[in-house]
Amino acid sequence: MGRQTEEATPYRAQVHAVVEQAAAMRDQTGWTPRVFDLGGGFAHGRDPEGRRSEAHAPPIEDYAEALITALLAELEQHRFPPPVLEFEPGGS
Question: Which residues contact 7 (CB under 8 A, 6 or more apart)?
């Protein structure tokens, strides 16, 4: 997901895809990841092309809530132990 995404909700789909892939790798190889890096690049008000302003970018807390809520649900569904969580907030 990149900074062009001005809504926090699509990050839930990203988390779902990441955990689904991790579960498939675990089921095929027996390897269980201990770290999940959920990326970053959240939208922010400083756009060099002037397409966006602070008013359009959700607060960083909205991104964090969407990511963590989705991650906890996905991890429980796929029976993963609690991981180390990493993400880079980008310009936010």
Answer: 58
Summarised one tens digit per residue, pLDDT across range 55-92 is: 566 777 887 888 889 999 999 999 999 888 877 765 54
- CA atoms within a 13 Å half-sphere pointing along the CA-CB vector of 34: 0
CB distance 43 to 3 below 8 Å: yes
Rounded CA gap, 16 and 32, in Å?
16
Q: Are 15 and 70 in contact (CB under 8 A)?
A: yes
pTM, two decimals, is 0.73
